[in-house]
Amino acid sequence: MRTIRRFLRQYQSFVISGTVILFSIVAFFVGLLPGIHAAIRLISETHSLQNTVKILTEKQRILSDLDISMLTTYSAAAITAVPADKSLGSLFSTVDTLTAQENVTVTGISLGTVGSVASDSAKKLTVDEQKIGVNIVPFSIIIEGPIDRVRNVVDRAVKIRRFFRVRSFDLSFDTKSGVTKSTLSMDAYYVPDLKQLSKVSDALTTLTPDEMEILDKVSAFPLLIQENSGGIESQTAPTLPGTVDPFAP
């Protein structure tokens, strides 16, 4: 005991200094260091919020400058050209209207594969779909009529506002009646709605001149509609198609 007291009296200043240093180290790790981490986190969050505010301000400026009428026209044109689902009703109605306008007879129409009517979740994208970035509904039609009318159908099929692609076709002629029979293998396109929407904080870009030029061309394509009453109408206005029964008399 005397030895301890003698040691403390002899090294009292060192003991006090060591105690203070030890307490300071403990206080640094227990109190000051977490506070530094919290301050750094707050600075980072503040910087992130400043960037978000800057993006939202720019978004507000872009949105305030947009022409709502123009966007409505472009949106309607895009949806009717490449719908968000297979839209088989508009597909058959467009084919029916096109062939009726050209006075050719449709003797057969069929979907290319059973998978064409499967749900989007059950359908895997083909190599061709992955290449062009859209979903495809393959179908084929058999038409009969004068050769010039058949040629017009093939030509107009890729110039209407329900985008089709003619993959192949074959012709056969009846020399006695002058009737041409043709089988057209075609594709229709659709793009399902996005399952995940973009974040509010994501940057917004305006349409480029090239994109606007493309949308102008799409809007100019005729929209073929078959009315329920049996009348046929060709429109260029960007009117969204309603539910149409392509097999109605």
Fold and architecture overview:
This protein is α+β, with helices and mostly antiparallel strands and 249 residues long. The chain has two domains: 2-62; 72-190 and 204-235, Ribosomal protein S6/Translation elongation factor EF1B (Alpha-Beta Plaits, 2-Layer Sandwich). It is 48% helix and 20% strand. It is built from seven helices and six strands; from the N terminus they run H-H-H-H-E-H-E-H-E-E-H-E-E. It has helices at 2-10, 12-65, 68-81, 88-101, 127-132, 147-156, 209-220; strands at 105-111, 135-145, 164-174, 179-190, 223-226, 232-235. Strand 5 (223-226) and strand 6 (232-235) form a beta hairpin. Helix 3 packs across helix 7.
Write out key terms for the chains shown.
disordered C terminus; two-stranded antiparallel ribbon; 48% helix; 7 helices; alpha+beta; 249 residues; 2 domains; Alpha-Beta Plaits
Q: How would you spell out the order of helices and strands? A: HHHHEHEHEEHEE
How many domains?
A: 2
Our measurement of the CA-to-CA distance between the termini, rounded to an integer number of angstroms, reads: 115 Å
Q: Low-confidence parts, pLDDT < 50 over ≥5 residues?
A: 114-118, 228-249
Number of strands: 6
Q: What gross morphology would you assign? A: elongated
Mean pLDDT: 77
CATH-defined architecture of the largest domain:
2-Layer Sandwich
Report the radius of gyration as a whole number of Å: 35 Å
Which secondary-structure class do the elements indicate? alpha+beta
CATH-defined topology of the largest domain:
Alpha-Beta Plaits
- What is the CATH homologous superfamily assignment of the largest domain? Ribosomal protein S6/Translation elongation factor EF1B
Q: Give the biggest sheet.
A: 4 strands, antiparallel
Percent helix, as a range, is: 40-55%
Strand content is 15-25%
Number of helices: 7
Instruction: Please identify the oligomeric state.
Output: single chain
- What's the level 1 CATH class of the largest domain? Alpha Beta
Report strand order across the widest sheet. Answer: 1-2-4-3
